[in-house]
Design goal:
Blueprint: E1 9-12, H1 18-29, E2 33-38, H2 41-52, E3 57-62, H3 68-82, E4 87-90, H4 105-132, E5 137-142, H5 155-175, E6 180-187, E7 190-191, H6 201-208, E8 215-216, H7 217-227, E9 239-242, H8 246-249
Parallel strand pairs: 1-2, 1-4, 2-3, 4-5, 5-6, 6-9, 7-8
Helix pairs in contact: 1-7, 3-4, 4-5
Length: 254
């Protein structure tokens, strides 16, 4: 897979840290050209600079993926810089925990705008550009195991992730005639900068995951790399769960 991404042009959202950054870095090392987005400008620049220091090509674009105009701007910038876009990865998402009975309209709108609209419009703008190009493309969404199993205080978040998976399935009809594949990855509990802020996270999820550990970022990155590589060229409309078997048994962390 080392040469599989040579000359590929990638937009990846929410890539300042964690899984998104891991995907961006590994694609860049494999000679892809990266447009790296994060809402946090300082984090976006820091992460892009780290990738550039490996000798790879990566540009930081800070902005909110809930804004369709910003997404179009990134796609236009990719074309301006590199003449095309071949891979779009909608990784950005937010998790706003909250009790269903008191969940606020403001939180629901925010979760839906980032997770659903941010994914939808990246796919739309990237696919419109891919249609104009004389080569195939691929789109990847980031879902979650909570799209498949209930998790306390995550009703809104889970709903958005299930929607993302249905979007990937539905877009097969729209995108296949243009040689564009679209899939999703559903990570389970994963050790990232954010989750490791919880001192009990690793211990709790390791104890209830059949494989005996929470996922490391690399586990999700490897799945993502496969789904955007030529090795998966006949796979579309699918969701790959990477959770160490948790969704097979689904014990609650609470």
């Amino acid at each position: 897979m080392q040469d599989a991404f040579n000359d590929q042009v990638v937009i990846i959202t929410g890539a300042g840290q964690g899984i998104g950054f891991g995907i961006a870095k590994q694609l860049a090392i494999r000679r892809a050209k990266i447009i790296l987005n994060d809402e946090d400008e300082q984090l976006a620049v820091k992460s892009a600079t780290e990738i550039q220091n490996t000798g790879s090509i990566c540009y930081a674009y800070a902005g909110d993926v809930a804004d369709p105009a910003f997404i179009k701007f990134m796609v236009d910038e990719a074309v301006k810089r590199f003449g095309k876009i071949t891979i779009a990865i909608a990784n950005a998402g937010i998790t706003l925990f909250g009790d269903f009975f008191t969940y606020s309209p403001e939180d629901l709108v925010r979760v839906m705008n980032v997770n659903i609209a941010g994914t939808f419009f990246l796919a739309q703008h990237a696919a419109n550009q891919m249609k104009l190009q004389n080569e195939k493309g691929t789109i990847l969404f980031m879902s979650s195991v909570t799209a498949h199993q209930a998790h306390k205080n995550l009703a809104a978040y889970s709903m958005t992730k299930a929607a993302i998976e249905m979007l990937a399935k539905n877009l097969v009809i729209e995108l296949s005639p243009f040689g564009i594949t679209v899939n999703s990855v559903a990570p389970g509990a994963t050790l990232t900068e954010r989750t490791l802020n919880d001192a009990e996270y690793k211990k709790t999820w390791s104890s209830i995951t059949p494989m005996g550990r929470a996922a490391e970022t690399e586990d999700i990155v490897n799945a993502a790399l496969f789904l955007v590589s030529p090795a998966s060229r006949h796979i579309t409309g699918q969701n790959l769960i990477v959770d160490g078997g948790w969704t097979s048994v689904s014990p609650s962390p609470f």
